[in-house]
Design goal:
Shape: globular
Order of helices and strands: HHEEEEEEHEEEHH
Number of domains: 1
Pfam families: LigD_N (PF13298)
Protein name: DNA ligase D 3'-phosphoesterase domain-containing protein
InterPro entries: LigD_PE_domain
Organism: Methyloceanibacter superfactus
Number of strands: 9
Strand content: 25-35%
């Protein structure tokens, strides 16, 4: 029963993608436990920031429309999305147009996180408090679930809010201050055009393509020297 529940965590992720067409990692759930987090800038139909926290062997995910803020007065809409495999945290590249979420993806920030209180209880109640230790974002945040969509939609809306601490700043917008990848230093335009090879880091060893030796240049044939013509025999003098 537990195994089936584990597989279900990535069922939606798998159903939305054609892995024969997209370079995104497959729906494999990690067995190891960790506490990583990643924020990926994603220029799909609308540019947004995918906020992901590692939990239960997957990345719990929210799409933050305007991106995270350092200003405690800013309540950023964070739409809950399907769980993603841990390998997705290393994905930076381009999802083909026409595929789900088509567009360039940048690793905007990464690091570790720690829950403040019980994470399971916080998720269930819709009040998840946590602390980030990232390359760009640090300090305390909270994800608060809003009331269900009154129109009957299935969308699960949350709010991402910065708590007031030493890392907070009124009016500060880190998404405007930083516009390159923390992994490769590339801009969204460079990722989209494939500058410096857009790849995602996989745990699988990459196959090395053997270097073919160049064939030795063919030796030029020396032109044959023309044979010397035989000298005509001298005629004998008549007696």
């Amino acid at each position: 029963m537990a195994r089936a529940q584990d597989d279900d965590l990535l069922a939606t992720y798998k159903a939305k993608r054609d892995f024969a067409k997209t370079p995104e990692p497959g729906p494999k759930r990690a067995r190891k436990k960790g506490n990583s987090f990643v924020i990926q800038k994603h220029a799909a139909r609308r540019t947004h920031f995918d906020f992901r926290l590692e939990k239960d062997g997957v990345l719990k995910s929210w799409a933050v429309t305007k991106g995270p803020s350092l200003d405690p007065s800013q309540k950023r809409l964070a739409v809950r999305t399907e769980d993603h495999p841990l390998e997705y945290g290393g994905f930076e590249g381009v999802i083909p147009k026409g595929e789900y979420g088509g567009g360039p993806v940048m690793i905007w920030d990464e690091g570790t996180w720690e829950p403040i209180g019980d994470a399971d209880e916080g998720l269930a109640k819709g009040d998840l408090k946590f602390r980030l230790h990232g390359k760009r974002l640090n300090g305390d945040y909270v994800l608060v679930r809003m009331k269900k969509d009154r129109t009957g939609g299935k969308r699960e809306n949350w709010l991402l809010i910065k708590k007031r601490d030493d890392y907070a700043g009124d009016g500060d917008e880190p998404t405007e201050a930083f516009d390159t990848s923390v992994k490769t230093g590339r801009s969204m335009e460079q990722i989209e055009t494939g500058a410096d090879s857009a790849v995602w880091s996989s745990n699988k060893a990459q196959k090395k393509t053997p270097v073919k030796k160049r064939a030795a240049p063919a030796k030029k044939k020396t032109a044959a020297k023309p044979k010397a013509k035989a000298k005509p025999k001298a005629k004998r003098a008549a007696k």
